Fold:
Amino acid sequence: MTNTLLFIVLPYLAVFACVIGSIYRTRKEPMSYSSLSSQFLENHGLMWGSLPWHLGILLILLAHILAFVCPGFWQTLTSNQVLLLSIEAAGFGLSILCLVGLVILAIRRLTSPRIQAVTTPMDLFVIALLLAQVALGAAMAVHCKWGSAWCSGTTTPYLWSLLLFQPDLSTIEDLPLIAKSHIVCAWLFILIIPFSRLIHLFAVPLEYLFRPPQNVVWNNSRKLKEECSAFVAEDTRRHFLKAALGIGFGAFLLSVGTLNKVFNFFFGPRLSKKEETELMEVKLAHLESTVDQRKLELERQASNYIMVAALSELNQSSGKYFIDYQMQPAIAFKGKDGLPLLISAKCTHLGCTVGNKVDEQGRILCPCHVSYFNIETGQPNAEAPAKAPLGHLSWVIMDERGSILASRNLEGKTACSVNQQALANGKVYIAKSQEDKT
Structure:
């Protein structure tokens, strides 16, 4: 119920309030459709706070939008380890930059008498919400590593499901509390836009480009004396055109050196014969991997039993990976009773493959977001982002003639018709009949 309210009801309420509230405020209170700039009241602190804040948040928002609009392209970028590390480092650095800017702006608004005179409770709430949102983003970069990689498989499908009016919470239900809080803060931010000065985000002053030039005349005699020597009335639009031409020419010069790189990035470079051969070998390896996977699927479709390992090959400290009938990874250990112990290797948090090394407390580790699972019970540790236990698999031990010597069903009941010594030469199998029940 809570998830439905926070991640389905709140998003639609926030967007509806933002759209309708912004339209209403534009029509009924057009003079309030402004950021109410305080630059004339205090400029020094604004410069040191506004620049890092805007620089950091714009780049972070661009990355978020790219991951949402082009998830396939984003997955391609984050699949490269160097790019993934660069994105994670850049994201954390930009979030710190945003925090520094926000703290300076908050201190400025709380300590300057002139700014306090025009500060409303909503302004303070907006700053507090932004501080919480950016701090949560920085905390995710530290505690929920590689978020830029797994976001395309969790938050992006969730956002698209909302956009298509087919809400699906399955991809975010198991996210850690930090990530969920970050999402909720984003919806709250959208919700308060029409009720705060944030509404100026939608104001695009295009008319400034076409209005006649304006001269600002100071009434203050002291200020007039300071500015008269430097004041020269010039055509504003002419200067704008000069600046635009300068920026355009600079962009052209930059593109001359980078156009080839950009073209190669999107369309691929021209390869030599050797490079083409190496590329074909890589493609062949991918095809062979696909063929091997299809063979495994065919084997599991046709066979009632799939061998995992000889019982003598299993041990208590290091497990043997295998693929079950659902084509999911699993691990085989030897239990304390000398019998097989088969457990799922798919983390119940975000589906990562857990490790096969058992620590001193009888646990295996999921390295993605640090969850420890007890191999005897399957339960995760209390602080883990994973909440559900790993499932155990049933098994049978057969001799060379195919006779079943021992078995364990999904309820954990063990049946054995021979002694431990006779089992030593047996082989461990998983059975389709038992797997189908899962």
Notes: Residues 236-267 form the longest helix (32 residues). The first strand starts at residue 305 and ends at 310.
